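QA checklist item 7 of 12: single-chain prediction sanity check.
[x] sequence parsed
[x] length recorded as 107
[x] structure emitted
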Amino acid sequence: TFTVPAGEGGTYMIGAGANIGAGTYSQLDHAIIYLLKDGTITSNYGTAFQSNPVYNTNHSFTDVHVLEAGDVLTVNAYANVNSGSGHVSGSGDSRRETYFYGYKLIT
């Protein structure tokens, strides 16, 4: 989560990525990563694998957004699996497969 500080509104480059997977091979039907601004989805990127399910995938995005002070950004990732349970890797280990960043652009 990132909240735009007071006096720091402007144009931002925002990016995120996640390794999204299933418990075993050929179980991941759909993977999506999305950006929320103040609780509303503003960008989403996904892939459907129903015709050929996979074990995992890496999804990422980079967007440019005009933000105001107090705007709250959050990134979520989701795995829809045909059996077992999905997961987002890297949140608790040293591989850093999940990330979220932003830079204020000087215009």
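[x] summary fact logged: The CA atoms of residues 33 and 77 lie 4 Å apart.
[ ] second reviewer sign-off
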